[in-house]
Amino acid sequence: xxxxxxxxxxxxxxxxxxxxxxxxxxxxxxxxxxxxxxxxxxxxxxxxxxxxxxxxxxxxxxxxxxxxxxxxxxxxxxxxxxxxxxxxxxxxxxxxxxxxxxxxxxxxxxxxxxxxxxxxxxxxxxxxxxxxxxxxxxxxxxxxxxxxxxxxxxxxxxxxxxxxxxxxxxxxxxxxxxxxxxxxxxxxxxxxxxxxxxxxxxxxxxxxxxxxxxxxxxxxxxxxxxxxxxxxxxxxxxxxxxxxxxxxxxxxxxxxxxxxxxxxxxxxxxxxxxxxxxxxxxx
Length: 283
Description:
By secondary structure, this protein is α/β, with parallel strands linked by helices. 39% of the residues lie in helices and 21% in strands.
């Protein structure tokens, strides 16, 4: 199953708003497959959140087309409900949408809306919670008793219970402490690897995307500036800096060591890579 974006453009059309009429996306073409863990990065206002909302028809492009498994999602009669069960979208701070008396009931909400039998709803909800690291003992806890990271994972489980083929997340680690961020990204990595779910996420954390993503798409002023591996994208440090982006801390540390005469290879973007290179150098 693939998502193919063909020459889409979009502008705000909100009369009375200062942004009305502003072009947000400009002639974007890109494709995604389930084998990739893709991060979409870019400066504030570059169109990242707007772009991902097009992928499951929350927004509709002014021009261009989007194909899901070869079929236009803009075709007359296209099943939007089915698309949104296949392409799950998790907004920032999704835990604010938790509302049921216990975690299992909350995660069951989506599959219930699909009209599935009760036993299938419970099965999906239970599997989704186990996927994100909950134990069965947690199923009947109140969502409001959970930590911030647990609430975030419960909210993501609610989307996973729909059994999507793609999981799209907008700043999934926003507001979490370092341990919560690491736990969340480790969970997404395992989900992608073992669950066969394509991951597409928006993030401002260059360290996180360097460590977990295998593909980066850089948006600037509504256009794709780069679409490549993290190592290749971060090799354009000066260009990224010129649009307000940074490079990972590991890349900075590696360059500092090179400036001090330690010969390290280029393309080091995670601390694990830097540590290995240092050990190799002094070994």
